[in-house]
Amino acid sequence: MTSLSVARVSLRILLCLSSIVTTLAIDIHPAAALNSLCNDSATYPLVLPDGTLSTETITFRCDTVTNPRLLVGALAFDNLSTTYSTPAGSKTLFLSLDVGVTVTAEFNGERRESQFSGQDYTVLGTFSETDLVGVPLRQGGALPGVDPWSQEFIDGMDFTIGRRGCAITALAMALNYLGLNTDPGTLNRFFTLADDYDDHGGLFFVAAVETFGAIEHDSALQFHRTSLSSRIPEDHAAAYVRARLQEGFPVIVGVGPPGTIAGPGSKRLDANGVPGHYVLVVGESAGTFLIQDPAATGATTLEFYGNDYVTRGYVSDPPGDLSSVELGITGAQLLVVDPVGRRTGFDPVTSRILQEIPGSVYARDMLDDDETGEADSRIHSTVWFPKQQAGQYQVNVIGEQAGTFMLLVMPFASDGRAQPRHTATGAMNAGSVSSFHFEFVAPSESTRLFGSGYTFPETATYRATFAIDILGVNSPSGSFQYFYGRKRLNLLSTGITNLSFASDQITFDGTASVNAVEGYTFNVIVQRNPDTIGIQIRKPDGTPLFLSDPSPISGAGVSVDAQ
Amino acid sequence: MRRFSVRSYRRLNLALAVIFSLAAPASAIAIPTAMVTYIETSIGGAAYQYDYTLINTSSPALNLDVNLYDVFVSFDAAQSVNATVPVGWNEIHGTGFVELFSTSSGIPPTGNDIGPGLALAGFQLSFAYRAGALAFDALFTNPSDVDNPLTFAGVTEVQSPSPGGPVPEPNTVLLIASAVLCCGAIYVKGKRRGQTLR
Question: Do A485 and B104 touch (CB under 8 A)?
Fold first, then answer.
């Protein structure tokens, strides 16, 4: 820690390179206040250790300000390599500033803290080539300056984020790495509202990321689910993590419980390879993965957890078809059989884990108490697979203990949006098997969407009636009629421009006349099970005329004839 | 020839003033009403055809510009319907419901709504069962609040021999009756006093 005069804001960097420690002083103009550092274009000269001015400059990037309490800064070094013997290429450091109290910096997995007086601060260390820039977050424990969200309770549970919130804290850090500013408290509120926890507080990663994307991001985000174990050589877990880091994506991995066994390197996955804690892999140095650990372990590499880990996935904003299905249950194993007989999950006959459905993942997770070390009493099982195939799927629930279960089926549309969920409940005993079925319908040119009904778009007094009859997907044709008595809005389609199906959601667009005036456009979203319909009508100039959020359909409802 | 006292005339005028003063607030809260009458015809098997007439039974005096433009008819939720409507009207139907609505606002010749005291025939619904009397909801234009049309709920009725005539609404009948009684009372009271007009 360095104290400097009030008139001069200085930054010292200890570059730990090949056992050579070099101290740099970076001269920052006296007028530069903290907030001014958060300016993408702010560039400051470097003062070399001998007091001369370097030809290099340092640029502060503060493009990830998470909230008023936490300011995140990033320092981008360009072409330092020739002068300071660092590897060629752009180097990036980051620091997180708990304004007014503490400066926290983390490099090479080593976290340093120093008092921040408001005008000076200290940053120590460097990152390796694959290190990523992000926000270290601590869910709780003994760390000073723990954020208030660590004391928030997880959806309906009797435990806090601080105790069992490592999954959402790791996810918050992963999102922050992508520049999507959030914190675990915010995520907890989102996920609680969206019901993205299972009935024991386990997080549905895919559903949770979809929720965050829908609320805080313009386009759909996807959590790329994986379950590659470091224990299984053919899983190539390390290669997977390394590849994602090189692509710029930190990876959430499951590890052993942090608090049960004392001493680095002795914390392992359980005998079945099930993790009880989650950390974020953010870089690699000398063959060791660097992590940000939500728990107050002080762990900076996966070596702390014995390099015994299982991947859980990463967040991105990918193009293309994002359709997928996530199934979750607690206290039981799952086995999903697709329409052609491929299986993913636990096979009770052979006691083996199968992942035959292309791209599918079967994962088993626990949420151990990161403060007390208490192990989770129930294991959370999930199956995820992309691009659902048309036809009937069978889900077998294999009980692990006596009690009741709730199976959740969460489909996602091709644009990544969550579709209506389906639940199945029942009683189970150890070894009992309960079977369920669900079906996906593939649309084609012979697919006909038809039906009629009415809704109450605004109040319970005034109805809107509609009639749909549309045939075909690639070149849809047919008609759509909508009348809302309150506004005397009489829409008659003049053309159908798009019809798309995604699980239980059907969307179609078209052109129309409204009250006999042509040139309007409309977009309709029909949700199935339970049926709702929402409509947006735009004027000929593209401005909105009428919007009805999805509301329940009464009357006949909507049918899809896929014959 | 019958002669009236001056005081009787004055009292008659006073009574009429009271009546109109009562009538004025009544017009402000007048609720529009509608009738939907039908003629039932068996068309073979279990199927029936119903020819409907929509009647805006609202008072032309008290419900100026309160035009009937939308009637939603509910029936057996397991049944469907075939519907035809007169020119200037349209319909959307499904199992258990049919909505009949005017496609242009205003009464003829500018629009196709049904003004107070007016009726429109030509609505024909065919069911695969004997529907009989059905519940309906009606919407009327609301001159004082265009965003909140006036509503009325009723039940279709078998058409009487002379359909289509406007039917006075109950509060109008009540007002007229009270006026007659009031006038009678004033007249009798004046006659008893024996004051005559010279």
Answer: no
